[in-house]
Amino acid sequence: MSNKQRSLLAMSVFFACGAQSAGFQVAEHSASGLGRAFAGEGVVADNASVLARNPAAMTLFDKAAFSGALSFVDPEVDVYDASDKEQSSDVAPTQIVPAAYYISPIDEKWAWGVGLFSNYGVATDYPTDISAGDMAGYTSLKSVNLNPNIAYRLNEQWSFGFGLNLVYAEAELTRHKGKVAGLAGSSALYSDKLISMTGETFGYGWNAAVMFELNDNYRVSLAYRSAVNLNFDDGTFRDYGNSIIQNGQPSVTGKLVVELPAIFELSGFYQLTPDWAVHYSWQRTDWSSFTELKATSDQCSQDGIPGQCFQKTEHYKDNDRLSIGATYLLNSEWTLRAGYAFDEQAGKPTLSIPDSDRHWYSAGVTYQWTDNLSIDAGFALVMSEKGSFKEVGPAGERHFESTGKAYISALQLNYQFN
Predict the structure, then answer these.
(1) Which of 97, 143, 175, 269 is most buried by a 10 A CB count?
(2) Of the candidates 154, 146, 262, which has an alpha carbon nearest to the alpha carbon of residue 211?
(3) Cα-trace Rg, the chain
(4) How far is CA 333 from CA 12, 62, 67, 373, 378, in A?
(5) Is the overall model pTM greater than 0.85, yes or no?
(6) Which positions ≥6 away from 18 have C-beta within 8 Å?
(7) Cα dihedral across residues 47, 48, 53, 54: positive or negative
(8) Which of 157, 37, 35 is nearest to 412 (CA)?
(9) What is the spatial distance between Cα 300 and Cα 340, in angstroms, rounded to a whole number?
(10) Average confidence score pLDDT of the chain
């Protein structure tokens, strides 16, 4: 087996797929939004969490407002190795996704706000002793976005918003030898480590939005969030004696550039009656910009390519997420909501990213505790369509099947200041 084969297979799961969103995207920004499958999230504006989707909607607030949310994501992702008759069950651990927002009007025209949330992140944890350990192990990407924004109301119909994004990210992975351990009479164990990498970095981006209010009952918005380049310039790369690192060193400082794709979203809200409202969203994510993973170091040499530690081509396309929802005002204390979303597959299914089409079924409730304080709760069942795919490794071609679903629940506290 060549060094290139080892490194490509090992790094292929740097971003393993979560069960809840296409690729490694995170949608969980609020409990209120979760209850309607995030339909109309850019213009419903029932609390400060609207800031995660549309800063222009800050002009709808006449008082300062705060929202804080915790989402609990419990994926059940199973991958079956049909070639080696092995089952890896529940490979995506439970995750907690926090978020917080504050919006404050300045005057009748201007407003400002800040959000703290995540747009991208994932974690998977395969057994250490599986045959495909060279392709699947422990993978974690965590990111948090600090997003200050400003908004301006031009007139009764048009509002505009703009923000900056400061993204902090941590990445970690470990791969094991798996079936590679048995090649050429090796006495190594499947669970022996093959490579590992850790890194942290900051990235920068921007976002902008426009909102149009036809009247008191109907409004629509367009929002754009730019791509963010994560430059892991000081990552620690180890290859555990696989001859990728030169001069016999156990580890080197590696560089890896990852682009978090841009997001475009259209949102709409229509108040049908005093009690009923409907809302919808179309979100498009620029996944086609995610074309490869490539790590470099002047102390690496991969199959005669100086300075290259590993490289893997990715096959992604832009994906669409369509959602529709409804809100019902039961009485002065209780508000009910429900929604459905279709999240289109973004990447070609592989063991590293067993991506597939997803269906969201959501419900939620708000309790108005006092005039200023409300509590949101939301729940969603996300069903992934079954996928089958193949990978070519040093031991030949292998066939895999993946199934997945996720249970997502969230709680949120909203406070409006006097």
Answers:
(1) 175
(2) 154
(3) 23
(4) 50, 21, 18, 11, 16
(5) yes
(6) 24, 26, 73, 75, 77, 92, 122, 123, 124, 406
(7) positive
(8) 35
(9) 48
(10) 87
Rounded-to-integer distance, Cα 288 and Cα 188, Å: 39
56: tokens are: 């222009």
Half-sphere exposure of 260 (CA within 13 A, CB side): 32
Residue 229, beta-bridge partner list: 259
Residue with tokens 């999240």: 343
Output the pLDDT for position 91: 81
pLDDT band at 330 (very low <50, low <70, confident <90, very high): very high
**312 SS3 class:** strand
Q: What is the pLDDT of residues 26-52, one digit of tens each?
A: 889 999 999 999 999 999 999 999 999
User: Which CATH class for the 3-416 domain?
Assistant: mainly beta
**Residue 7: DSSP 8-state:** H
Residue in 321, 304, 175, 186 with CA at minimum distance from that of residue 246: 304
CA distance 401 to 395: 18
For 78, the token pair is 């199973």
- How many Å apart are CA 209 and CA 153, to the nearest integer? 12
